[in-house]
Amino acid sequence: MKRMGMIFRAKANKALDRAEDPRETLDYSYQKQLELLQKVRRGVADVATSRKRLELQLNQLQSQGSKHDDQARKALALGREDLAREALSRKSALQQQVSDLEVQHQTLQGEEEKLTLAAQRLQAKVDAFRTKKETIKATYTAAQAQTRIAESFTGISEEMGDVGMAIQRAEDKTAQLQARAGAIDELLASGALDDPTGMAKDDLTAELDRLSGGADVELELQRMKAELAGPSSSQQAIEGGNGGGQQQGQSQDTPRFDKQ
After folding, report:
1. Residue 129 CB neighbour total at 10 angstroms
2. How far is CA 59 from CA 52, 94, 97, in A?
3. Is the pTM of this model over 0.70?
4. Is residue 239 part of a domain?
5. What is the per-residue pLDDT across 4-22, written as a single tens digit (0 to 9) for each?
6. Which stretches within the chain are classed as H helix?
7. Could you give the CA distance from residue 20 to residue 164 in angstroms, rounded to a whole number?
8. Cα 100 from Cα 94, distance rounded (Å)
9. Fewer CB within 10 Å of terminal CB in the chain, N or C?
10. Which residues touch 97 (CB under 8 Å, ≥6 apart)?
11. Considering the chain, what percentage of its residues have pLDDT values greater than 70?
């Protein structure tokens, strides 16, 4: 079972390697960093909001303390020391709340400063990662294109390999057919195979037929020339060369009379 599990994990890892695109991985990492930066910014905004709320409460308590202080002064002026004492007691209670809120305000302000600094640093890292990401993506794309071009030229790529195999199969089949046709022609010429159509001839028969055909053409050509020259010439052409020689000899022996 362990071996099967190892084989399965190895095959799955190999399939993932083929399917993984570094550019997509970089884009995903950049997206995650942007999400983290957004969370940090929201945290800064939340802390700043809490700090602002404390500042409003402090201002309100300080206003109430000033009001109680005025009430105590007014009560003393009217001779009501008891009322002045009550107003000052309320002022003292408010002062304790103000002190507690000031401590919280300082704590929130410190946290806000830390988060703001962290957000700035994270922003700088995200910007640097984005620049590096785009550089790596451009380099990877260029290398991928160069590899594909090189594979196409060398025939290593899968597509060009299929084309090369198809061409090789076509050439092999063509050569096989040519060899088979040549072998059949040789067997027919040698008489080892019979031609049922009677069209196949040996070399001697083919040569005799060619010569006979040439002689027939010459005879036909002479006959046509004689027909065009006239009946007497046609007769001479048919009788042959000897008859023509006799007529020429007789014409030379016959005396010639000139008209006066």
Report:
1. 15
2. 11, 11, 12
3. no
4. no
5. 666 656 666 555 556 667 8
6. 2-19, 22-77, 81-154, 158-190, 203-229, 231-239, 241-253
7. 29
8. 10
9. C
10. 61
11. 64
